[in-house]
Amino acid sequence: MLLQKTLQNFTQNPKNDILSGLTVALALVPEAVAFAFVAGIDPLVGLYGAFMMGIITALFGGRPGMISGATGAMAVVMVHLIAKGNEVGETLATPIENLGLQWLFITLLFVGGIQILAGVLRLGKFVRLIPHPVMMGFVNGLAIVIFLSQLGLFKENVGGEMQWMSGNTLLYMLGLVTLTMAIMFGLPKLTKKIPAALTAIVVVAGIVIFGKMDVSTVGSFIKDGGGTGLEGGLPTFQDQIFTLFYTIGDNWSMILSTAFILAAVGLIESLMTLNLIDEMTETRGSGNRECVAQGGANIVNGLFGGMGGCAMIGQSIININSGGRGRLSGAVAAVALLCFVLFGAPLIEQIPIAALVGVMFMVVIGTFAWSSFRILHKIPLTDAIVLIAVSAITVWQDLAIAVIAGVIMSALSFAWKSATMIRARKRIKEDGTKVYEIWGPLFFGSTSAFNKKFDVANDPEHIEIDFIESQINDHSGVEALRNIANKYIDNGKKVTLTHLSPDCKTILLKWNPEFETIINDSIEDPRYHVATDLLDSEV
Known about the structure:
two-stranded antiparallel ribbon, 20 helices, Membrane-Transporter-like, single chain
């Protein structure tokens, strides 16, 4: 069934998928090269990584139309590992050149294993728990990061140093960027049969090539960064990494910690991108399947000499906006990227950087959630703070830290609000029994307020605590109820507990078997589970 769906997805919209894939492939080239420079490795390693990530996730991933490749979020994490590996390689009795790169390949094997394990354990579903303000903050922050990353392309090599463009060089760059954006904005209003991004790149590249304009190109960008060019062969099996484990020595903690960070960053960015593409296409992908595909792709990268990576939100949005919806679009992008390396390097190196910058600027405009400005004063203050904080942390630190911080902030806000919702309505029955009708959730955050509702010393001899409108959510809630019941019993008063769930009764009776006499069973008792490690099913 899975194979049938995959094949069907390949044949749904071939024309748009192929054209969109070619557009994405052109946009992938400078991104992969730039992130390879960030990590301190050869550009071809970045391009190989983008190819292997792209082809494997396109074929086996959980989100058709989503593009994966070498990413900046992961490249930043790799820098220290690669530098340390190179340092160790120079100090060995027999020095090993580029040992840091070999350590990266070894690390990617662990990264892939962790990500596959996350998919097998079905952890991908937890992305659905990310609050909407965090999602909006992530989108805004990433749009800003993409924008800032493009500003670095407005520099040129002057006397061996990278300096900001000026004079005619800057004017040409701005003019070509503006032309690219104008084509991408205007063409869809005339026709949607051809991708606007691809058309813009071809038109601007034609103007530069035939007009013999002296502007920054993909080729000059690679040379300015210290690379030799795009041209290369097929990725080769890195069998030497299995003989280099001995070089790690006392650095295993760094290898494993880096692997966990890379795996976390990769999965968070991939699953967040998957969630965004789901919303854009009004379809639903499989987070768990994507985890497994991402892990498999990173293992292949480690074995065949790629830098690894994850889903790329910018290229994914280019793909979706260009009409790419199926797996064919991602596969075409990956194969086209490899073909550029094998056969088309001289031609691709002539593409002006301005055309690709213009495409990415349009991605920034399309990615940023402009509606957030309109709703900031309409949503709760805590949600507004979370949205702004996640955006800022994404720019300041990285995506993983921003999302984790946003989820924690949202969880604490929810817990605080829920903690203040506990109520106790009090009434006296005709027989003199005082009834506490509890309303609201009882959990770790509301136990203090719950305890203050009772007046043990002054209450009458008969007490009834009714949970028909409340739910005990965790062990702290059960413990609070047990303590308050024991206080009444210690004061010689009779207490009755009504409308408890089976879980609550089981836990209370484990600790206090004598509670069987004070728990009132009823057909109206609610049924829900309590989050505690005391249940037999969870031990």
